[in-house]
C-alpha cells in the first residue's frame, strides 16, 4: 500500500442506483483505493442488498486484497415508505432528492467523529445526482462529479439553456426547428429523439428526464473536478468542449473477479457460459445482451429468437428474468431445439465474455459501459439501441468508428428475424468491421494507462486537500 503522510484522504463515492452507474463507480473506487486512499461506497439499501445477494449466489467472497481493504461498502435508506411503488423510478428520484442530503450528512458526521484522521475529505457524486455536491460543500469535502456516459452525452448539457433560448428545443427538450443538433463537425449530430432525455413514447417521462438534465447543468459548475468514463482519443472533440474534464476511462474490470466489491452485479453471474464458450471455435459466437434496463415486447423477443436461429451462428444470449416486458421470457414454439447452437443465461460475466476468443460480435443495446467493454476487446457491434444515450452511442459505433451495423426496425418498431439474420451475416462477412474494432481496442488500452495516470494525479490532489483542512476549524 502507498504510504500517505498526514491525514489520510477519505472519499465518499455515491452512485445513482442503476447497474450502469454502480459498476463504473466501483471500478473508479478500486483505482482510487489501489493508491492507499480510503473509499466509502454508498448505495441505497435495496441496491446494497441486491449486490450482496448476487455476490453470494455467484459464489463470490469478499477478499482482503489491497483495494478491497481500502473500500467499505455501506448503505443509506432511500426515503421511500413501504406503501410506495418500489418500481417507480421517478418517485425514487424525488425521494432521493428530498432525503439523501440528510442521510449523507449524518453518515459523514458519524465517520468524522469516529476517526479524525480519516475524515471524509472528498465526495464523488454521480452526475445524475449532482445536487449532492451541496452536501459535500456543507461538510467541507471536495465536491467531485463522475459522469458514467460518454463525453458527448455530457457535452450537450451545458448547451441546453442556449438551445432553449434559440428555440431549437421546446420546454420538454424535443428538437424543434432544424431537426438535428450539431455541437461540432467531429461529433455525430443528434437527430430528433436521439437526445439522452428523449422518450417520444411517453412525453411525461421525457419531461422528467429533461428536468434531470437541467439539474445536471446546474451541478456542473459546482464540481471541483469532473471525471468522465471515457478517454480522450475516443471522442477528442467532445472532451475538448468540456473545460477541465478529466477522462479517466475506459474503466475496466480488474482480474480479481472473486471479490464482492469488484463485481457489483445486481444479478448473480452465470459463469457456465465461459466453459460453453471454450468449446467454440475462435470468432464464431454472437453475444447478445441488452444491459440491465431495456425490455422487449413478446413479439420482438420472438423475432429475435427466430432471427438468431435463422442466422445459423452460435449465440450466447443474456435473457434477464424481466427482459420480456418485465416478465420471464416465453420462447417461440420449438425454439429451444437450438441445442448446441445457442446458450441462454440470465446474467453473464460480460467483460470476460467479450474478451473470449470465441466471440465474433456483440448484438448490443449500446449502453455506454457495454460500448466501452466491446471497444476495449476489439469486438464489432450489431446495434439495437433502446433509449437515453444509446442512440447517440450507436451513431459513434456505426458512423464514426465504423465498427458495426444497425439492426433497423420496421415502421411498426419491430426488428424482423430477416433483418437480424442479414445484419449478422454482414458483420461476419466484412472483415473491415473487425479491423476497425481492433484499432479501437488499441486506442482504449493506450488510454487505460492514461486514465490510471489521472487517478494518480487525483490521489495527490486528494492528499493535499485532506491536509489543507488540517487546521482545527472543522474538527
Ligand atoms: N452486464 C453484465 N452482465 C450481463 C449484462 C450486462 O455484467 O449479462 C454489465 C455490463 O458489463 C455493463 C453493465 O452491466 O457494465 C450495463 O451497463 P450499460 O451502460 O451497458 O447498460 P445499462 O444497463 O445502463 O442500460
UniProtKB/TrEMBL annotation:
Occurrences of domain Glycosyltransferase N-terminal (ranges): 11-44
Pfam families, per database record: Glyco_transf_N, UDPGT
Keywords: Transferase
Region: Disordered, residue numbers: 57-86
Keyword Iron among record annotations: no
Family matches, as CDD domains: GT1_Gtf-like
InterPro entries per record: Glyco_transf_N, UDP_glucos_trans
Name of the protein this chain belongs to: UDP-glycosyltransferase 83A1
SUPFAM superfamilies referenced in this protein's UniProt entry, alphabetically: UDP-Glycosyltransferase/glycogen phosphorylase
Family: Belongs to the UDP-glycosyltransferase family.
GO terms of molecular function: quercetin 3-O-glucosyltransferase activity; quercetin 7-O-glucosyltransferase activity
UniProt source species: Sesamum angolense
Xref: Gene3D superfamilies: Glycogen Phosphorylase B
PANTHER family, sorted: GLUCOSYL/GLUCURONOSYL TRANSFERASES, UDP-GLYCOSYLTRANSFERASE 83A1-LIKE
